[in-house]
């Protein structure tokens, strides 16, 4: 029987979902642009609809990410989850420090 890698399959399913959402957004934006061009919808209505679609896509993407993370965490032992949380906390600290360094560098460059 072939090996079944749940992590890889979850990743593939997530990426497929994100791809489908992205295609849906593109098609929706094209449709809105077409309606605006034909006068069936005002520019403001089109902008509002595009804003709402973008918000919904972000929300659905976040929900998918949360589900994937919950599934991954559920497959871990308590000790593995603690190690994972420590790794994430270290990465957050690293990114925060990089952001501060980057902001300070930009501030110094603009002061010259």
Instruction: Please state the structural category.
Output: mainly alpha
What is the 3D form?
flat
Average pLDDT works out at 80
Approximate strand percentage? under 5%
What is the tally of beta strands? Answer: 0
**What's the gyration radius in Å?**
21 Å
Low-confidence runs (pLDDT<50, min 5 residues)?
none
Order of helices and strands: HHH
**Termini, distance in Å?**
65 Å
Major β-sheet annotation = none
Q: How much helicity do the residues have?
A: over 70%
Compute the number of helices. 3
List the topology elements.
Elements: H1 6-37, H2 43-74, H3 78-111
Describe the structure concisely for a colleague.
With 112 residues, the chain is mostly helical. The chain contains three helices and no strands.
Describe this entry's structure for a reader.
The chain is mainly α and 112 residues long. 88% of the residues lie in helices and 0% in strands. It has three helices and no strands. The N and C termini lie far apart (65 Å). 1% of the residues are buried.
Keywords:
0% strand, mainly alpha
